[in-house]
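Please fill in the sequence for the structure shown.

STRUCTURE ENCODING:
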């Protein structure tokens, strides 16, 4: 068996590497081509090679316990020491200067698509700046920026099918923007005005879009992870050629929901891509206080999932791994874990002051040197697709668009207060009808204390 596997692996072109738990000792069986074979064929062949090799008969020749894949006995008492295991490498395509390091890994995306990626990242960045300041001015109640993580959003979103179902955490606005969520829709949701599809019943940045296949954000950490596993299982049964994609931070991976989701997805062979944004901090808790092991990707083999660690600030690397993960996910009907290494440049939210737990110098280093937007800009300029003059004009234009949408949203009225009782039952229940009537009577009686002129009026 070992010789067969060895000969098989020699035929691999090892570049973009997934750790496959089906191959012993984390042998690399990845997206990269087994000569003449697709990714799915490569993985299938590796798994068949391992399982089809005849074992030596006899009660004591090899372990036969159903709970493990052990293939040999040992008389050497030795514990596996995680501190002595080499860390999973970080896959990248471009360095911090926007230079492609391996020509074979360049996705060769067309100019218009790369420019669109850059403009979406910068538009998101400008929107974050405006809405963050608006919260400080008291115009909206809460906000959460995406500074430094734009590459993880756009790189992955561009590699997916627009109908793949997205389960986000709360810092994935770029994924929704790439799919076509407009600035007006973002602003309406944050203001909670009459045009907000959620009728003002959600906190700001808790976006959702049925049309764009983006499940509405929930504040509760990690609840979307098992939901994604369940949705993927339904997709598997439907055989619709789509997958679920779940984004979460490394802090969410510490929740029990993450364990349940990973285990369900792996044992039920669910077509789901788990994308962990490891940005260094779970609010104020740094990674070294969150876990002892080698990040989040190292957990995947224990669940029987292929995994990869990628430079999340490299938009091309994110594109490559997501595209490859989706191919494996669907052809094999199995979950994939992507750990995107990045850095949260902004505060966790408007409720946080990150200067209390990290230095300004640390943040500036990531903002000025490792920034995913600057990296892509350098690449585009080197390709003669962009220039400083074009950049200056575009930044003026995208700011104008954001300000225009922001001002329009601020002028709209709040939703009819009656709407807060709907969308739970098909027909309003008696007790909810009573509560709504009580609310109306209360506001009418004390209307001098309520800014009812700012709301759409209810039916008399």
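FILLED IN BY: designer on duty
SEQUENCE:
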């Amino acid at each position: 068996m070992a010789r067969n596997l060895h000969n098989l692996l020699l035929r691999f072109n090892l570049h973009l590497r997934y750790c496959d738990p089906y191959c012993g000792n984390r042998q690399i069986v990845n997206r990269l081509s087994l000569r003449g074979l697709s990714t799915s064929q490569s993985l299938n062949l590796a798994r068949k090679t391992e399982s089809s090799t005849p074992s030596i008969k006899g009660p004591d020749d090899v372990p036969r316990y159903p709970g493990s894949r052990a293939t040999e006995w040992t008389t050497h008492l030795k514990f596996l020491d995680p501190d002595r295991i080499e860390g999973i490498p970080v896959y990248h395509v471009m360095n911090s200067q926007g230079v492609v390091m391996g020509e074979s890994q360049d996705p060769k995306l067309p100019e218009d698509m790369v420019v669109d990626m850059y403009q979406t990242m910068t538009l998101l960045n400008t929107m974050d700046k405006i809405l963050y300041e608006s919260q400080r001015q008291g115009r909206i109640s809460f906000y959460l920026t995406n500074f430094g993580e734009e590459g993880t959003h756009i790189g992955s979103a561009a590699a997916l099918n627009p109908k793949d179902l997205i389960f986000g955490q709360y810092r994935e606005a770029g994924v929704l923007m790439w799919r076509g969520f407009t600035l007006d829709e973002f602003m309406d949701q944050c203001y909670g005005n009459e045009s907000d599809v959620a009728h003002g019943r959600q906190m700001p940045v808790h976006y959702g879009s049925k049309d764009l296949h983006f499940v509405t954000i929930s504040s509760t950490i990690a609840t979307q992870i098992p939901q994604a596993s369940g949705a993927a299982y339904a997709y598997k049964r439907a055989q619709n050629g789509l997958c679920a994609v779940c984004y979460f931070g490394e802090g969410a991976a510490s929740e029990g929901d993450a364990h349940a989701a990973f285990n369900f997805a792996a044992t039920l062979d669910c077509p789901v891509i788990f994308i962990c944004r490891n940005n260094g901090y779970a609010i104020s808790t740094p990674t070294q206080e969150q876990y002892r092991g080698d990040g989040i990707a190292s957990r995947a083999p224990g669940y029987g999932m292929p995994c990869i660690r990628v430079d999340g600030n490299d938009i091309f690397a994110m594109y490559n791994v997501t595209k490859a993960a989706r191919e494996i996910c669907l052809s094999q009907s199995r979950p994939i874990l992507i750990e995107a290494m990045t850095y949260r440049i902004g505060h966790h939210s408007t409720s946080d002051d990150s200067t209390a737990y990290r230095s300004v110098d640390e943040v500036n280093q990531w903002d000025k040197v490792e920034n995913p937007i600057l990296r892509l800009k350098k690449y585009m300029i080197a390709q003669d697709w962009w220039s400083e003059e074009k950049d200056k004009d575009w930044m003026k234009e995208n700011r104008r668009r954001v300000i225009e949408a922001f001002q329009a949203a601020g002028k709209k009225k709040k939703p009819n207060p009656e709407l807060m009782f709907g969308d739970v039952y098909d027909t309003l229940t008696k007790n909810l009808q009573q509560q709504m009537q009580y609310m109306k009577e209360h506001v009418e009686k004390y209307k001098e204390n309520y800014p009812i002129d700012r709301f759409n009026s209810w039916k008399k």
